Each structure stands twice: as structure tokens, then as C-alpha cells.
Amino acid sequence: MSQTSSSSAIHYGTTKPPLWRNVAVLKWCAQLAVLLGVLAVFWFLIAEARTNLAAKSIPVGYDWLDNPANFQLGEGIQTVDTPERSLTMSRALWVGMVNTLRIAALGIIFSTLLGVLVGISRLSKNFVAQRFSSAYVEGLRNIPVLVQIILWLAILGSLGKLTPDTGPIPGWVIVSQKGISLPRVFLADGFYQFAALMLVFVVGIVAVRRQLKRRQDRDGGDLRIGLWTFVLFVISAAIAWLINPIMAFLGPIFGAIEDAWGAVPQGAMQLLLCVIAVVGVITWIRKFLDSKRSPAGLAKLTDDDWFRMIFSVFVGVVAVFVVVRGWPGLSSWIINSGSDFWGVLGDKFGDGRGAKPLDAMRPTLTEGRFVNFGDTGLTLTVFYASIFLGLVFYTSAFIAEVVRGGILAVPSGQSEAAAALGLTRAQALRKVVLPQAFRVIMPPLGNQYLNITKNTSLGIAVGFSEIVQVGQTVYNKNSQTLAVFSIYMIFYLSCSLSISSVVNTINRRLAIVER
Amino acid sequence: MSDVTMTPTSPSNGASNRTSPLQWVRVNLFSSVSNTIQTIVFTAITLGLLRALLGQAFSEEADWTSVSTNLRLLMIYNYPADQIIRIWVSAAVVLLAAGLSLGAWKVEPGYTVGRLGRHLVGLGLFSLVTRLLLPVHAPDTVRTWLIIIGVVSLVAGVVVQRGDPDGDRVMGFGTVLSGVALTFLAVLWLVPFGQYGLVDGVLVAESGTTVASSTKVPWTVLLIIVVASHRVGIILGRALGRSLRAALAAFWVVGPAFVIFVILRDPAFDWAHVWSTDIPIAAMFGLGGAAVLYFVAAPGKTEVARAVGAMLFAFALFNWVAAFFGWYPMLQKVRISFLIFAIVVLLVPAFAGDRSTRRRVAGGWVAAMVVFHWLLTAINTESTLVITAPPFLGGFVLTVGIAYYVMLASFPLGVLLSLARTSKLPIFRVMSTGYIEVIRGVPLITVLFFFSIMLPLFLPKGMGISDLAAVFAGYTVFSAAYMAENVRGGLQSVRRGQYEAADALGLTTVQRTSLIVLPQALRVSIPNLVGQAIAVFKETSLIAIVGGFDLLRIANSTIPNQPDFLGQKRPGLLFISLVYFVFAYSMSKSSQRLEARLKDAQAR
Amino acid sequence: MSIADQALTEDLASRDDMIVCTGVSKWFDDFQALKGVDVTVKDREVMVVLGPSGSGKSTLIRCINRLEVHQEGSIFVDGIELTNDTRNIERIRSEVGMVFQQFNLFPHLSVIDNVTLAPVWVRKKSKVEAEQKAIELLERVGIPEQAQKYPGQLSGGQQQRVAIARSLAMEPKIMLFDEPTSALDPEMIAEVLDVMKDLARGGMTMMVVTHEMGFAREVADRLVFMESGEVVEVGTPEHFFTNPREDRTKLFLSQIL
Prior knowledge:
The complex is a heterotrimer.
Chain A: H1 23-55, H2 89-121, H3 127-141, H4 145-157, E1 174-176, E2 179-182, E3 184-187, H5 191-219, H6 225-243, H7 250-262, H8 266-291, E4 293-294, E5 297-298, H9 303-326, H10 329-348, E6 358-361, E7 365-366, E8 369-370, E9 378-381, H11 382-409, H12 412-420, H13 425-455, H14 459-462, H15 467-478, H16 481-514
Antiparallel strand pairs in A: 1-2, 2-9, 3-6, 4-5, 7-8
Helix pairs in contact in A: 2-11, 2-13, 2-15, 3-11, 4-11, 5-6, 7-10, 8-9, 8-10, 11-13, 12-13, 13-16, 15-16
Chain B: H1 21-29, H2 33-57, H3 65-69, H4 71-76, H5 84-104, E1 111-112, H6 113-133, H7 140-162, E2 170-171, H8 173-190, E3 196-199, E4 202-205, H9 211-240, H10 242-265, H11 271-296, H12 302-325, H13 332-347, H14 355-379, H15 395-422, H16 426-441, H17 444-458, H18 467-493, H19 496-504, H20 509-539, H21 551-558, H22 570-603
Antiparallel strand pairs in B: 1-2, 3-4
Helix pairs in contact in B: 5-9, 5-10, 6-7, 8-9, 11-13, 11-14, 12-13, 15-16, 15-18, 15-21, 16-18, 17-18, 18-20, 19-20, 20-22, 21-22
Chain C: H1 3-14, E1 17-28, E2 31-42, E3 46-50, H2 57-64, E4 72-77, E5 80-81, H3 86-95, E6 96-99, H4 111-121, H5 127-140, H6 156-168, E7 174-178, H7 186-201, E8 205-209, H8 213-219, E9 222-227, E10 230-235, H9 237-242, H10 247-256
Parallel strand pairs in C: 3-8, 3-9, 6-7, 7-8
Antiparallel strand pairs in C: 1-2, 1-4, 4-5, 9-10
């Protein structure tokens, strides 16, 4: 029996549709048209900006980063020009970034603690606890965070004057309209040597641990691996504390790397970047073709697949063009910043460093204000304190909701099953409910961490020297708005990327544990 | 805190009248040791915090007349006092539409008499506790009023609760609305707000000039309008149904723009110019376009329409290039109209149909052109409003206005972005993903700064943009990225089978998206979109940083700089916190109710 | 080959070709789902496609209205070749109706709106005309009283019948059924199969992927057995159920019967 009848009058053969009715062609033409349109708009805007900037005779570029700042910062790791280290524009921006990160990190820790507490007590059976935490959440999350920050500033500003015997505990804990000050522990000069030495020790401890574990698995018995690890760790920390200056030899090594990196010729770097682009495109195409390859041979490629490959080649060509012609500064920028990175690292091990890795200080006052930098305690200025309090309370309300939602998302059958197995309530919560709730909680929690980091930019409203405020001071001085905004963008995007990659890693871990 | 419920059982809300109060206290507060400890600890925290808050509100220096005197400033900022009637009329128009909408959509909160009683008892107890915790500096009037409110609502609450022992007597929304309106009116007419007022920046200390007294009559009228229009909305909704709801929806999209231009600005049209230029252009586009659309909306004209559309599109783009290089003069609005026309012609084959459909397409176009050209003309026309102190726009009106228009403008942009992000076309997806992630990665304040500082730099010579417009543009661009993510969640909930069924029936991509995918996706994303509306509303406070005179800026810098209220920050800030809270909280509550209603609808 | 078989074969040979697949191949990345499939469906023929899961039978009928894009070979539907040509795709889709395993009704539209959607927007009929036709079709599938309800309020069998009515509203020349009864409770299968039998008796060209052997034996003109992307055997029901030629077919039938 024949499957295809030859009696039919139809001519069998593949007919090619005309271009203007071909789906694949239409799709790609539309995409390319929009892409070119967007690029044209950008090109037009940038051309306009260049003309406008040239008319005002403002140079475009990043050369100004090394100029002296000529302004003071409110607070931070360096606020004024000092003989040892001049406050350049780039240094000022760096101080702003560190301030942002300080607020963000502290804010994340405290809002998580507070949020978890409130979130759990919102699920309590106790009427007062439940009502209080509901009111807490609803009240704090429905008032704009900026209003809360400014309200905190107004409240803190109305506190008592700062005198030597202000306190709750004069000399140790001071709360006044100039801010809050506590004794602090800080990383001293020797910390980097100490950390490097500890790295070496930890490698050793891990090796010992593995050895012990192998013996325990083989011979049985309890070798108290955890205890031994802890003891070894304490001992090596003590040793490292005492002998850390021996790691100073790393300084010259990093210095040598710095020199070597800086000596790379620009042409070589350009060539390297071009090669990376070309190899990247080739690898992508090969992987793409591989994914279409079956034991029976290469699948027939659709028009769509061809367009994809042509487009990736196009991207590669554009990348090479950018490296060679469009932005030749890119390669020298990579060379310089790479060498700077090693230089900074080398400085940490440089002359005069060593000895104590950590140190402590009590609050000190001069002329009715706190000493900002150097020999002093941990001082929260009112600006720092208001943005910190505002962010922590606001975000903790959201985190409480996230936590509550996560716990509620665990089906009640789970805790019932745990009870049936004879686990106590606390055990059920710890071993069964929380691990499952954690997977639901993590992604929105990460979002809240991102929000805290971004909301630190509201420090500008209270004059706290975080990156946006410092950047604004910078471009008010030298009109380099475009460059400053590009720095903002890179900074915040890398914060977002690192937070989300941490959250994603934890999430992946949790997912594996679950299987 | 080991006492954790694993299931969302709320504690019995102190409501069931079957148990005596004493029993209730024993069960809910002191059932076990840990429960008792929790009760004591949380009561202490609550009282302590309340005491601290009252200490801030009624501290020694706090002067609440700084708020009551400046209410007008906080609401409408420097709006010329002799033209305030415009604000009242616009508020009346908006509230009329709001009342009609509430009626037409049959919003029913399901509020029971029993719950009202409970809330009254709660309010009474809260007032009395507050009275006990008041700091010494609090004015005597506050003490007296707290006692009066406490006792009255406590008694009223108990009485009301008696009337609904089972908690199943549901109050209609009309009743609730009337109740709220009556309470508001009673407060307005009975409470003496004080004898001071700022008239044109001067503090006047005589009776009868307070802001409250000058607003008594208008507020009364407004409240009557709301209650009445809600009633009318219910009746009309029964009679007209879908067409009334469509008309109201249209009002909420274009209405506010009309309100601004008709009432707040009242454009002074140059009628000679209007007759000679504006009306002919509008007529040309409206009627000529309608004819073309009527022609291409016939079945079987798909390819003709595409060809015509593509040519028009090329022509429209060329107009912009030509304008840029100054080859031939053409009015901006003609260029915009050409562009819109080209896009509509490209889209129209998807909605082609029989004669009545074609007529509707053409009619819709004419209507859209009339509105659009009127708005364009109005925008480019001087206002009759006499502005004495620029910037005159500010206060609560600015906050609400910006939030509303940002949501409205970022909605289509966000939907487009989310469609691009979920599309199968790789370049669209990459571009949209890049946009969304970059915008979501940076703080709003940098975007606002960027637009207010950089936008003027990017524009060609001779093209300017006002500060507020630049901020508005930046906020819209920012909000669209979040909008896109919310809509994307909805899009992902639409199953593959829906796309396949639409394809198998022969729907085009535009039809599939607009008739099948988006209606389902948007319905799913409504709760998230309301959440975003709340966020947008709250974050309008950032306008204060980039130079707008919104609520925050007024409370934080304008009032404390008045010679009469130097440094009075806390009362104002607490007051605006309350304003923000009331609006954001009621939005989030209604969104929760909406979510429950949608869930019911889906289970149906 | 029996006399009846021969008569049927001759009858079929004299009819026009409705679907002609020649050497159709389809890959999902490196997995080849179809390996040079040749199948012809004649006018007014009911062809049932059998095969174990993953044999490519769903992929084949999904290629016919281009829910999947075939990469090699050619597919002609009613003399129109299925290519990248937008016009051809539009024409074929409006001539070919499809019924899915999961019904895929539009949950936000009432039953009547589900049925009238495509006639109004694709065929450009007037709303009134489309609604008259829709009521007729709903009567034909036996549920005229459900017209104003939403899909979520119907049982699975009712939903699938609405889905059939929705496809029929486009007045298709060909109907494709992709396991139409697999997602149904046993007691609802019969009502859907009855509607399909009616359709077959009315002379509709049908291509059906199903595991309902009773239906295949009673209604099908020819059966196609597929395995791992290949057509193993084509024949009449009698041939299949009494005397299959290939061992793989025998094995499959012994497992399923």
C-alpha cells in the first residue's frame, strides 16, 4: 500500500515565499529596525550632549578623578586633606561608597533581626503580641521612608547638647544632638598580614580535618573533629596575632605584580580583548551548533537559527570595532585599574604596617563635638543615625511580612507530620518548618536587601556623605555630571549584582539540600 | 517565642459575645506561662512606644498651630487665593466620578455592625489610654477632647455591638460612606480649630479666618456630592451596566488631564489661531484618517494596510529627521499626529471587521484625535490663571497628581516592556531585560537627578523642558521598569495552551496578545499593580529632594522657616506621616479585598 | 488484504489529498522528534494516529497547523504549502481546527464569547451572525444551555465539547484532535467521543491522536502507527487489529489491548 498517492495533481516541492511575507525575515527586520531606532536615538542624544557640553567648554572624560577635591566630607574614612593622603575626587567618591556600604551592611543586619522578631510575633497566639506587631508593620510600611528618615533627624536634633558628661554612661555611651557614640573595635594596621597568615593556617586546618575525618570513617569511634578544629583555630589565631608582621614580604610581591601589569603595552591589551571577543563569538556559535547536533547528524537550521548566528557575528564585529576604534581608552583603563588594584593591595602590606590586627577605642570629644576620624569610638552622627534608624525600621516592617509569609507558606500538614513523629513544637519549628520557609523567604528577602542598599541614597536628604551626596558635590564643583552618573550606575549595579548573586547561591544551596 | 501558630488562624478577635470579657482575657492573654510573659512584655513595649510618640508630638516646643494654620499650604501650596474655586470644582468633578465608580462597580466592603462596634470600643480605649500617657506639656484642650472621644465612642461601641450580637449584620457601602461623611461634617462644624490663619503669607489673628472655617461650606458640598453620586452610581449601574463603566474608565484615563486644563489652567485660546490652524489640522487628521482607516479596516485589506502603514511610518520618521536638520518647517503636533496615525494604520488590520466594526474604528479615531488635539493646543496655550508666586503647584495636590499621572503614563510603557521581555524575539528580549534590570538596579533619586539635570543637556537647542516635567519623565521611566516586572508575573501565569489555542484559531499576534493574553495577565497582576501604586504614592516624597514643593518639603522646610513657627518640624512631619499613612493604608486594605474578590471569581 | 479493505483503498485513492506530508523531519535541539514522516490524509477521511508516548504523534499533528515548525520535508494542506509565508500560514490556520488535550478554553471569556471570538476577529463576521452560528454549534455538541457560563463552571467533558464547537465555528475543512479524551474522567469520555463520531459521519476530514481503541476501530478509515518519530505501519482498522505486519505494531497492540 503506498502512503503517498501519485494521482494528485499538486506539484510537490518547497516553494520559497517572497521576502515581505517570510515570517523569519519579518521578525528579524522588525527587531533590527527597533534596535537601530534605539541606537539612533542614543546616538542623537549623546551627540547633542557633546555639542551642549562643548558649548559650555566642559571636557568629557574621567581625567578629573585625580584632581584635588577641595571640599570636606561630613564623615567617613577620610574627610579632609591630610599630609599622608590627599583627598582627590576619586578618593572622595570612594569615601562616599564606603559610607553607603557601611549603612547598607549595618542596615541589613539589624533590619533582618528586627524583622524576623516582629514577623514571628505576628504569628503568635498572644493577642497583644499579634496586635502590636500588626500595628508595627502597617504603621511603618505605609509611611514613606524618606519622611521617616527626616522625622528621625528632627527627633535626634531635639536631644540634649553634647558635653563631656553627657551620657547614659558618660565616656562610654553618649547620646546627644550631635549623635550617638559607643566604644568601637576596628581593623588596625596589622589586619591584612593577620588575614593572610590566617588564610595559610586555615588551609592547614582543613587538611588536618580531612585527615581526621578519613581516619574516623575508617576506624570508627568519635575523634571529636569539631572540638579539634576549634582548638586548632584558636591556637593559630593566637599565633597569627603574635607573628603576623612576617607576612610583610607579600608587599613587594604585590608591588611587582603591579609593575608587571602596568607594563603591559596597550596594543597587546587591545589584541587580547579582540581575541576574547572573537573566541567568545566562535565558542557561542559552536555551542549553538552543538545543541542542534544529533547522533543522526546536524539538524536542518531554520532561517531563525541563521539570523541568530549572523547577529552574534555582528555583535563580535561591533565589539572589536569598539575596542580598536570606538573607545581606545578602554584597554588602557583596564591596564591602569588592574595595576592600581595590586598597588592598593601592596600598600596594605607596606612599610610600618603590622602588629595588632584589631584595636579598640572609647568615644572622645573635642570642643563640644565628637572626633570624627582616628582616635575615637564608634560615632553615629545624627545624620548617620537618622538614616540608619529610618531604613532599619522601615525595612524591618517589610522583612516581617516576608518572614510571616514564608512561615505561612509551609503547609500545616508539615507541622502535623512532625508532631506525629513525636517532635516537640520547638523541634518541629527548627527542623521542619523553618528550613522549608527559608526557601520561600530568601528571594523576597534578597529584594529587601537590594532596597536597603538603594535607599541609602536618601542620605542626601539629611546631608549624609554617601555616594550620591558626594557625587552631587563633585558635579556641582566641576560639572562632570555624565561621568558622575556613570559612576553611580556602575556602583549600584555592582552592589545589586553581588547581593543577588549571594542570594542566588544560598538559594541554590537550599534547593540542593531539599533533594 | 515558641508560641507560634503554624496556620493563619488569627486569635479570636475579642469579639465573640458568647464568652464573657473575663473568659476572653484568660484564654487570649494568660493561658500559659509563655503567653503571660508575652502579654506583659508586649504591653510594656506598646505603652512605652506610645508614650515616646506622644512625647514627640506634645513636647515642650511643639506648636500644633503650625500645622492647623498651614493646612492650605500643605494641601495646595501657593495656589492663588482668589482662584481657589477652581480647585474646589476639580475636586468636586473627581469626587463625583469616584462616587459614581464606587456605585457602578458595586464596591461592597462587607463591613458588619459588630465590627463597627468593636472598632468604636477600640478607639475609645485607645483614646483613654492616650489621655493617661499624655506628657505634661500637652494642651488642655487635647486632654478634654481625648476624654470626650474616649467615653462617647466607648459607650457608642458597646451599644452598637449589642445590636449585632452574632456579627452578621452587614452594612452597605452607602451607609458606611454616609457615616464617614457625617462624622467628618460633625468634626468640621463642631470642633473649634483655632482662630489663626495665614492669609497671603501674613498671620492673621482674628476669628473667622481659619482655613477650616473657609472650607466648611465647600467640604460639606463635596461630601454630599460623594454620597449622592454613589447612590446615583448604583442606580445608573443597574440601568446602563457596561456602558457606564466604560465611560467612567475613559474618564479616569483622560478626565484628570481635562480637569487640569479646563479648571486649573483654563487655557486662553487665541481663537484666530485656533480657527485658522488648530481646527483645520485636527479636522484633516480626524476626517482624513477616519476615511483611510474605514478603508483599510475592511476584511482582506491586511497587506494593503501594512504597505500603507509602512509608508506612512517611514514618512512620519522622515518628518522628524527633516525637522532636526531644518529642511522644511512642520508643526510639532502634525509630526506627532503622523506618527500616531502610522502606528494605528499598522495595527488596524488586527481589528478589521464588518461595517459596524469599521465604523467604530473610524469613530474612535475621530474622538481620539479631537481629545488629543484639544489637549495639545491647550498645553501650548497660555493660562488665564494669575500666578503670583511661582512655583504655585505643590502640596498634597502635587503629591496625588504626580502619583496618578506617573502610574497612568508608566502603565503602557511597562506593558510593552514586559511583552518584549517575555517575547521569543531575542533582540527585543535583551533590550527590554537590559532596560528593566538597569533601572531596577539604581535608586530612584539618581534617576530623578539624572532627568532633572541631564535631560536639558540632551535636548537640541530651542527645546526646553520644565523642572517638574523632567522629574515626571524620570519617575515614569523608573516606574515603568517595576510595572513591567509586575505585569511579567501575570504574563508568566498565562499557560502555553492559551497561546496555542489562539494560534490554532488563526488569531494574529496582535489579536492574540490583546484579546487573550493581556486580559488574563493583567487580571492576575492587579494586586501587585496596586502595591506598586502605593509605592509610587509614597515615593513621590523624593520630589522634595529634587526641588518640588510636595508635602514633605513644605513640612520640613517651608513651615519651619516661617517667622511664626521657626524650627517647628515635628508637628508638620507627624501630620504628613498621618496623611501618607491614611492613604497608603486604605489603598493596601482595598487591594487585599480586591485580591480576595478575584480569588473568588477565579474559583467560580 | 480483504475485499472490504481493497474497496476502501480504491475509494480513498480516488479522493483529493487534504494533508500531504513528505519526508517531514523535526528536531528539538539535538533530539529528533520526527524522522522523515510520509503521511497522506484524503478528503473526508478519518485517520487515527497511534503510538507510545514520545513517538512524535502529537508533534506531527502540531506541525500541520504550524504550532511547531518542521525543518525538513514539505507539508501541503488542501494544496497550500506550509512555509514561512505569512499568507499561507493564515490560510491554513483558518482551514484547520484543532482540539487540545487540556481544552485550552479562554477562561476570561464566556462560552459563547469563546465560540464567537475567532469568527468575529479572523473571519470578520458580524457579532449577530457569529452568535447565531455559535448557538447552533453548541446545540450540535449538546450544551446550548451553558452559553452564558464561564469555562471554569463547566465539567471537563463539557469544556472539551465547547472546545470542539469553538473550532467548528471557523468552518474548518480539517479537524486535528490531540488526545482529546486523555485529560477527562472516564465517565465523560463517551460524551466527547460521541460528538467526534457525529463529526466523522458528517464527512469531516479528521486526524486524531488517541488511545481510545474502540473509537479507532469503529470510526477510523485508516490507522497510522508511529514509533520514535517514524511511521511504522499504515492500514485499515481491520488490517491492524487482526493481522498487523510489523513486530513493533504487534508488541504495542498487545500492550494496549
